[in-house]
Write a structure and sequence with these properties.
35% of the residues lie in helices and 19% in strands. By secondary structure, the chain is of the alpha/beta class. It is globular and about 55 Å long. The protein starts with a helix and ends with a strand.
Length: 145
């Protein structure tokens, strides 16, 4: 819901961005926007509400990847799970053997990680760095020794 982060998502190549604030049925909105729903949704917050919303954005045979952690139960509409063959997968990150592939892509110039870093601060300013991250006004802050 942060306009700055939505702008960054567009700059990184997102086909669509949606500020969910004020949208009554996010799943219906996204399914309409994408002509049927997304193939893959990635949930990284770990709130039962956002996990449910991500699931409702899926199209038939869509996959929800949940990386966000919650201790609470989540509610999923079972008919969509069965009839539309949607699936839910818990993910802890990427498998260990994928890291080398990622490093190779970066090394070969296929992806620029510099564009992800919006702020660098010395270790002495660690508190200021944490405040900047929590403010939502930075994408990634690197703390240097």
């Amino acid at each position: 819901m942060n306009p700055l982060k939505l702008k960054w998502a567009e700059e990184f190549g997102a086909d669509y961005t949606v500020n969910s604030h004020g949208i009554r049925d996010l799943g219906a909105h996204v399914r309409n926007l994408t002509a049927g729903g997304v193939d893959v949704a990635y949930e990284a917050i770990g709130a039962p509400r956002t996990i449910y919303q991500a699931f409702t954005c899926l199209g038939p045979m869509g996959r929800l990847l949940v990386a966000g952690y919650t201790r609470n139960d989540i509610k999923i509409p079972e008919p969509k799970l069965i009839i539309e063959e949607r699936s839910i997968h818990g993910v802890l990150g990427c498998p260990y053997n994928d890291y080398q592939k990622i490093f190779n892509i970066i090394e070969d110039g296929g992806y620029s990680i510099e564009s992800l870093v919006t702020n660098q601060m010395p270790l002495d300013d660690i508190e200021k760095a944490l405040i900047s991250v929590r403010s939502g006004q930075t994408l990634r802050t690197i703390v240097l020794p």
